[in-house]
Design a protein that fits this description.
The chain has five helices and ten strands, in the order αααααββββββββββ.
Length: 189
């Protein structure tokens, strides 16, 4: 498992070694200054997608960025260590997966309150995939121009290289899981 404090020091050293100010790397990586600062202080553990953006901002591959930081092949992520994100509109995400070097996979549990529209998400790079499973309630999933209504126990797969959206149009909460393999195009030059 990668220790967040060790990761933060490593990122700080890489950034300052390249003569980059915090805001310069944040802009290059497409990550907020506050998020990058919290990661460097070891206060936040970044998702794989965020860590991949930081690697791109530093001109490194994700595996090169994390080389020699992994100390254990088995990673246990206790409930208290999971990232809980309260989103605008009242919906809530829990990122269940740890950061694993070279793996662009995330597993997320989402709760949408009654009548909540989580919004539309842009298409990811070709080769990206999402699997969705509804635990309870009813989920309205949009993929491209199509829409699907999923009930408790239903699941779906779709290539995530299309815009997609999630909404709960009922009067009961909806809980669902997203397993996502997100590819990102590498910057050139």
């Amino acid at each position: 498992m990668i220790d967040p404090v060790t990761l933060g020091r490593h990122l700080h050293d890489l950034r300052t070694g390249r003569g980059l100010a915090l805001n310069a790397l944040a802009k290059e990586a497409g990550v907020s200054v506050s998020m990058l600062s919290a990661i460097e202080r070891g206060e936040k553990t970044p998702t794989v997608v965020v860590l991949s953006r930081i690697a791109d901002g530093l001109g490194l591959s994700l595996s090169r960025l994390l080389a020699d930081l992994e100390t254990d092949r088995v990673i246990v992520r206790r409930a208290a260590e999971q990232d809980h994100v309260a989103e605008p509109g009242g919906w809530h995400r829990t990122v269940l997966t740890p950061v694993v070097p070279g793996v662009n996979f995330e597993w997320i549990r989402t709760t949408l309150p009654p009548g909540c529209d989580a919004g539309s998400f842009p298409a990811y790079a070709p080769g990206s995939h999402e699997f969705v499973a509804v635990e309870s309630g009813e989920l309205c999933l949009g993929v491209g121009e199509a829409s699907y209504v999923l009930a408790a126990g239903d699941s779906v797969y779709f290539p995530a290289d299309a815009a997609h959206s999630y909404a709960n149009r009922t009067e009961k909460p909806c809980v669902y899981y997203v397993a996502a393999l997100i590819m990102r195009p590498r910057k050139t030059g």
